[in-house]
Amino acid sequence: MPESDQIAARQSPAVPRHVAIIMDGNGRWAKQRRLPRIAGHRAGVKSVRRVVERCIESGVEALTVFAFSTENWRRPQKEVGLLMELFLSALEREVKKLHQHNVRMRIVGDRSRFPMKLQNRIAEAERYTAANTALTFTIAANYGGRWDIAQAVRELGHSIERGELKADEITENLLQSSLALSDLPEPDLFIRTGGEQRISNFLLWQLAYTEFYFTDTLWPDFGKRSFAEALRSFASRQRRFGRTSEQVER
Ligand code: IPE
Ligand code: IPE
Ligand code: MG
Predict the structure, then answer these.
(1) Model pTM?
(2) CATH numeric code, 16-144+186-237
(3) Is 26 a residue of the active site?
(4) Which residues are CB-contacts of 145 (< 8 A; sequence separation ≥ 6)?
């Protein structure tokens, strides 16, 4: 897509600026095929690649995907270990391609619990792609919405202890600025694949006014057409942000 078309797409309110996705259904996809669960996760990486490309083409500025929740440590140790390995190998494989697509990549979540090698690779990938401008692609890993709010409050607490901030100065905006993704517009469109209709401790604060889209499609099956369908659904909605439709239409 020529850059001018991309900019035109960007200016249309019908295109979400920020899309957030819970990529669910990898395990069931594998089970249907009598494959081990990890085969579903591997297939899921391909869906991520497709959606990244569609976002760039559609003029979406930011894509945030939920890859591993703070609750996912409760899974069998073997699956957790394989997921960490997959995360590492996918990073090693994909970062160059993302860079060629002018994608800025970042990870949000508590990375301190990850193997050191993975932490290093994450930092490298973030540095390597930091100046890219086509899309901000954020992977939420060992992320939880409650963790996010708690870490933001802790940060403000430290500022108070240092005497740099007064409790009365804490506003919604200030708290927001300490959260993950504070430099991005709030998600306009939330997608969850895999048929469940819940947030599962993903972005809690940030989804306050996001449009929700649920699909039964399992994440490894989520491709070009499914994404286009989600964008179409988004474009057909009226966002009122508390106002009346008469006010919005005026
Ligand atoms: C989502 O797929 C990916 C991760 C949570 C890592 P699941 O692994 O949850 O797939 P289902 O829900 O078991 O089908
Ligand atoms: C949510 O999926 C987390 C990710 C997609 C990474 P889960 O499949 O773990 O969610 P629950 O536990 O079924 O709600
Ligand atoms: Mg699941």
Answers:
(1) 0.95
(2) 3.40.1180.10
(3) no
(4) 199, 201, 202, 203, 204, 205
